[in-house]
């Protein structure tokens, strides 16, 4: 299982970003296990899949989506 964490200035921002990322998780393939949640000022995503290529692509997509959400929130 892979774990990725993002840190934010406030718990409220972390909660909102976790909720938005979790929406994107709902369209993941059935064999891909992915869960995103907030813990304090952090957003944590756990990802599990047997194929390393799928895992790498999912983590890349997660990082891109988090960056996009963060940029939009700054507008």
What are the main properties of this structure?
single chain; 75 residues; alpha+beta; TATA-Binding Protein; 3-stranded antiparallel β-sheet; 2 helices; 51% helix; globular
Walk me through what this model shows:
The protein is of the alpha+beta class. It has a single domain (2-74), classed as TATA-Binding Protein. It contains two helices and three strands, in the order βαββα. A three-stranded antiparallel sheet has the order 1-3-2, with helices on one face. The protein is globular. It starts with a strand and ends with a helix.
Count of alpha/pi helices: 2
Termini Cα gap: 34 Å
What's the total number of strands? 3
Which overall shape is indicated by the principal axes computed on the Cα atoms?
globular
Question: Would you list the SSEs in sequence order as H and E?
Answer: EHEEH
**Poorly predicted runs of 5 or more residues:** none
Q: What percentage of residues falls in helices of 4 or more residues?
A: 40-55%
Q: Total domains, how many? A: 1
Rg measurement, Å:
12 Å
The main pleated sheet reads as:
3 strands, antiparallel
**In CATH's first tier, which class applies?**
Alpha Beta
Q: What structural class do the secondary elements suggest?
A: alpha+beta
Mean pLDDT: 92
Strand content: 25-35%
- Name given to the CATH architecture: 2-Layer Sandwich
Q: Describe the strand arrangement of the main beta sheet, using strand numbers.
A: 1-3-2
CATH topology annotation: TATA-Binding Protein
CATH homologous superfamily annotation? Alpha-D-phosphohexomutase, C-terminal domain
């Amino acid at each position: 299982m892979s774990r990725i964490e993002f840190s934010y200035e406030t718990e409220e921002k972390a909660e909102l970003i976790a909720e938005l990322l979790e929406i994107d998780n709902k369209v993941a393939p059935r064999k891909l296990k992915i869960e995103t949640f907030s813990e304090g000022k952090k957003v944590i995503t756990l990802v599990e899949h047997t194929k390393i290529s799928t895992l790498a692509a999912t983590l890349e997509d997660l990082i891109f989506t988090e960056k996009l959400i963060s940029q939009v929130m700054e507008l």
